[in-house]
Specification:
Number of domains: 2
Strand content: 15-25%
CATH architecture of the largest domain: 3-Layer(aba) Sandwich
Helix content: 40-55%
Bound molecules: adenosine-5'-triphosphate
Distance between the termini: 26 Å
Shape: globular
Number of strands: 12
Radius of gyration: 20 Å
CATH topology of the largest domain: Isopropylmalate Dehydrogenase
Order of helices and strands: EHEHHEHEEEEHEHEHEHEEHHH
Largest sheet: 10 strands, mixed
CATH class of the largest domain: Alpha Beta
Length: about 375
């Protein structure tokens, strides 16, 4: 029987709508061609443009659409010139992360043969690892509430047992799924600074307790400074790495750098009940409205969404469609014929998305 899944769509600001439109069209066509699942897309107004018009950045009605959806597809959000009265930027994606307790920030880093990267890749090597950034606590815990006096500033780092246990279970489950689909040796690396901070010794202790439940997987530790070095020297050695919020914030940009920029970097923020899928890049107001934005990070986020939904609901066809969509983008990038400017080509958004749709046979 075909089951329907509800997708909440936040089309975002700047280039957001331009990259959302072709992504939704591809996902919709793939679902229409399937006998195993269908998708319904519901627009959820939010973001900087919406705030400028209405005074609301994330209306309760949109929050409700997000809450009751099976997955949330969110494009780039925020505009530098549209701010709250206190000067901070509009970022509904952070509000969603907090409201829905999306503790696992999933940042895949892949460099396939033929893909541009600042590294000199040894022949035959490819990069394929996933960085999981805890996204609700850590050094971001007092975000916006830090104490500043004339001579001192303090922010508090929070690591809780509750979130850490969920995070590590998620990391080991992901390594297991990757291993089962031939995408890694089943290794999880805990990235911390346990040699200096007690909070990270606590973090590591909970990691080790989860690792003990998975004798079929490899567990490993690395200090965050050494990890930054190894991500440049031997990134192909990583499989799944899991870390605190601030460390993950920094290392995920390093990961995007390895991929040759943000144009190919998808992400997901996952909790126990909800999940948001969105490109790592911002709304790129400097190129908005020109039809030249790279849609690949958004399309790859859509592929992650299909794979996640397929695993969660045990719908193999949806998992396979997610993998096919990811591989279609990889193929277009490797062929190098239809690339947007940020990847060294001259193609526009529509042509780049069409090239992916053609590989999939849904053009
Ligand atoms: P944020 O803080 O919201 O993440 P940012 O200030 O880091 O945003 P982006 O909006 O990501 O910046 O843009 C950084 C640069 O990358 C800009 O020059 C932008 O044009 C370019 N860029 C970002 N996304 C894309 C894309 N999908 N296609 C082409 N260029 C992009």
């Amino acid at each position: 029987m075909t089951k329907n899944y509800e997708i909440a769509v936040f089309e975002g600001d700047g280039i957001g709508p331009e990259i959302t439109d072709p992504t939704v069209k591809i996902l919709d066509q793939m679902a229409r061609n399937s006998n195993s699942y269908s998708l319904t897309f519901t627009d959820a107004p939010a973001g900087a443009t919406h705030y400028a018009k209405t005074g609301e950045s994330l209306p309760e009605a949109s929050m409700e659409i997000a809450r009751r959806s099976d997955a949330i597809l969110l494009s780039a959000m925020g505009l530098p010139d549209v701010r709250y009265a206190d000067g901070t930027e509009i970022s509904p994606q952070i509000d969603l992360r907090k409201a829905l307790t999306l503790f696992a920030g999933v940042r895949p880093v892949t460099v396939r043969a033929g893909q541009r990267t600042p590294l000199n890749m040894p022949d035959g090597k490819e990069i394929d690892f996933v960085l999981i950034r805890e996204s609700t606590e850590g050094l971001f815990f007092t975000q916006g509430r830090g104490e500043v006096t004339e001579n001192e500033a303090r922010e508090t780092l929070l690591i809780t047992r509750d979130i850490s246990e969920k995070l590590f279970k998620f990391a080991f489950d992901l390594a297991k799924t990757r291993k089962a689909t031939g995408r890694g040796p089943g290794k999880v690396t805990c990235v911390d600074k346990a040699n200096v901070f007690r909070a990270f010794a606590f973090f590591r202790e909970m990691f080790d307790a989860e690792a003990a439940k998975h004798p079929d997987l490899i567990s490993d530790h690395a200090y965050v400074d050494a990890t930054a070095l190894w991500m440049v020297q031997k990134p192909w050695d990583f499989d799944v790495m899991v870390t605190e919020n601030m460390f993950g914030d920094i290392l995920s940009d390093l990961g995007a750098g390895l991929m040759g920029g943000l144009g190919l970097a998808p992400s997901a923020d996952i909790g126990l009940e909800n999940a948001v899928f969105q490109p790592c890049h911002g709304s790129a107001p400097d190129i908005a409205g020109q039809g030249v934005a790279n849609p690949f990070a958004m399309i790859l986020s859509g592929a992650m969404m299909l794979e996640w939904l397929g695993i969660r609901h045990d719908v193999e066809a949806m998992q396979n469609d997610g993998a096919r969509l990811r591989q279609a983008v990889d193929q277009v990038v490797a062929e190098g014929q239809v690339l947007t400017r940020d990847l060294g080509g001259t193609a526009g958004t529509a042509d780049a998305a069409s090239a992916v749709a053609k590989v999939l046979g849904v053009a």
